[in-house]
Design goal:
It is a single chain. This protein is mostly beta strands. It folds into four domains: 119 residues, no CATH class; 74 residues, no CATH class; 159 residues, no CATH class; 149 residues, no CATH class. 5% of the residues lie in helices and 42% in strands. The protein has three helices and 41 strands. It has a 28-stranded parallel β-sheet that branches. Strands 11-14-12-13 form a four-stranded antiparallel β-sheet, with no helix packed on it. β21 and β22 form a beta hairpin.
Length: 549
């Protein structure tokens, strides 16, 4: 019986059933007997760790545990993932900090094991080698930052309206609300990666009384709700610091089997500080990556002072049956609010097109780049409000669709456009652009006919929503370095040619594309000395009011 009294004495059982974290990830049982502290592997990959009462007292008095306390070798050769996972499981139950051993190199092989982080963690200067050359489950994260709070279905809410300020609920604490109407399809993608779209979804924060945080408003009407959940938001910040991670890249077939061998963040109020991630061993082929730092289904996350790495670009056959380059990322944000990247950079040249743009996002709101040097900012399936400031963007520049306000200030942009409105989602932005004090170097200085706002929409595809261009575009103190330009260059255009077929009033728009109402310009200069013009296709933009002041 003494081997079973563990749950009564310490309530330690790391099958986390009450939390946001998926219980199936851990499979760890913790006991406390007079035997020595050790880790055993049982059937079905279940780990049993015995922590002697003496060690329990020692760890609690110390206030933290180390990976070596649970058998991690840190020699760069022995697979330490079981010891790492057990360390975090014990720390989670005892509310202890985790510290990596200084000078250690932890090897993490391809077995399916995820370490759940629910307490402050200091990876320090330790190195982590993640070998992806033979992985049992490429969908399984290496680390998952989870909450001890439990999501629950929200009862009594049958509909929602865009910009609704309050919902009729009473909650135990501030919550992150996720809502879906599976009967409506949005983001019906066009082009080489075409698809049938995704169920209408939204994510927003409400307080205890149901008041919606209007800094991240509801962006869709929900006449019907097929699923709605509330996740209580952790009030205390969880801090993750340090760590020198290296991924030995997979050698899998180049197709859309995204590898998620990463640090996944599924808890609100998290700071990741000083982490470094590098990639080695990329060959002639490989599967893409779903972000080494992957933020999803949470709010108030800051990634700061981190160094990331762009992944090599590989090609496959897309949904349209034609070759297509695959997006592959070191940073991903999905269904998340108020996510900031501050003072982050990457190891490879941000202007080197061999490497895919480092960042992608979907269904997110209030994204921030500040003091970053990265190859791309991108919003796939919409962003509501984004700010990019004091930053340098590389060869893939700024790509976005969405709503609200996109603010770009004190930045240098090396993309083909100052801002590219993604054509595969209709080049839509329902809101405005504010661009201040920036330098635009078109196509990293290669000879191109420059345009500030890029995109295309032939008005013949149903994207699942009405498509808009930003109603107002304000540009102040912009330097356009178009000194290296092609022959017969007419000067930079405000807009690219969004629809070459639409040259007069006879063109019929099956799905109307609402164009910009006004462009405000102040102190826009060009290195070529050529004046800024409206577009190669003046007919499309004939009703746009351009004001220079």
């Amino acid at each position: 019986m003494k081997y079973i009294f563990l749950l009564f004495l310490f309530s330690i059982h790391a099958m986390v059933t009450q939390a946001q974290t998926d219980a199936s990830l851990e499979n760890i049982v913790i006991t406390s007997t007079k035997k020595k502290t050790q880790v055993l592997t049982l059937e079905n990959s279940v780990l049993q760790v015995n922590v002697s009462p003496k060690d329990v007292r020692k760890f609690k008095a110390r206030g933290f545990v180390r990976y070596s306390d649970f058998g991690a070798k840190g020699d760069g050769k022995t697979d330490d993932i079981d010891a790492i996972a057990v360390t975090h499981a014990f720390a989670n139950q005892q509310n202890l900090m985790v510290k990596a051993d200084q000078g250690a190199t932890y090897f993490i092989g391809g077995k399916e094991r995820t370490a759940i982080i629910q307490t402050d963690t200091d990876f320090g200067t330790a190195a982590f080698i993640i070998d992806d050359t033979a992985v049992k489950n490429y969908n399984a994260a290496v680390f998952e930052v989870g909450s001890k709070l439990q999501a629950f279905k929200l009862e009594g809410v049958s509909s929602l309206k865009r910009n609704q300020e309050k919902i009729a609920v009473s909650l135990p604490e501030n919550c992150l609300i996720t809502v879906t109407n599976s009967n409506i399809r949005r983001y019906i993608r066009f082009g080489l990666n075409q698809n049938n779209g995704s169920a209408q979804t939204d994510i927003f924060v409400v307080d205890k009384t149901g008041k919606v945080d209007m800094a991240a408003p509801i962006i869709w009407d929900f006449d019907q709700i097929t699923e709605i959940t509330a996740l209580p938001i952790d009030e205390k910040k969880l801090n993750i610091s340090g760590g020198r991670f290296t991924t030995i890249a997979n050698q899998a077939e180049s197709k859309y089997t995204y590898y998620s061998r990463n640090l996944t963040i599924k808890r609100s109020n998290v700071i990741v500080d000083g982490l470094e991630h590098r990639v080695s061993g990329e060959g002639e082929h490989g599967a893409p990556y779903n972000g080494f730092i992957n933020v999803n289904n949470c709010a108030y996350v800051t990634v700061q002072n981190c160094i990331l790495t762009g992944h090599k670009t590989y090609s496959t056959i897309g949904a349209a049956g034609k070759p297509v380059t695959m997006g592959t990322y070191d940073l991903i944000v999905n269904r998340a609010l108020n996510v900031s990247f501050v003072n982050c950079s990457q190891t490879n040249d941000i202007k080197d097109s061999k490497y895919w743009g480092i960042f992608g996002s979907n269904y997110s709101k209030n994204l921030l780049y500040d003091k970053c040097i990265l190859s791309r900012f991108d919003a796939h399936m919409g962003v509501a409000n984004a700010t990019i400031r004091n930053s340098t963007l590389g060869h893939m520049g700024i790509n976005a669709i969405g709503s609200g306000v996109l603010t770009v200030e004190n930045c240098t942009i090396y993309g083909r456009n100052l801002v590219n409105l993604r054509s595969d989602y209709g080049s839509t932005w329902q809101g405005e652009f504010i661009i201040r004090n920036c330098t635009f170097v078109p196509a990293s200085g290669n000879p191109v006919s420059a345009s500030l706002i890029g995109g295309s929409n032939a008005s013949d595809h149903d994207f699942g929503y009405t498509c808009y261009m930003p109603e107002r575009i304000s540009i102040e103190n912009l330097k356009i370095d178009d000194s290296n330009h092609p022959e017969n260059y007419q000067g930079p255009a405000i807009f690219s040619n969004f629809n070459p077929q639409m040259t007069d009033g006879s063109y019929e728009e099956k799905f109307p594309f609402v164009r910009t109402r006004e462009v405000l310009l102040k102190n826009v200069t060009t290195a070529s000395g050529k004046a800024l013009r409206i577009s190669d296709n003046t007919f499309i933009f004939k009703d746009v009011k351009v004001v220079t002041y």
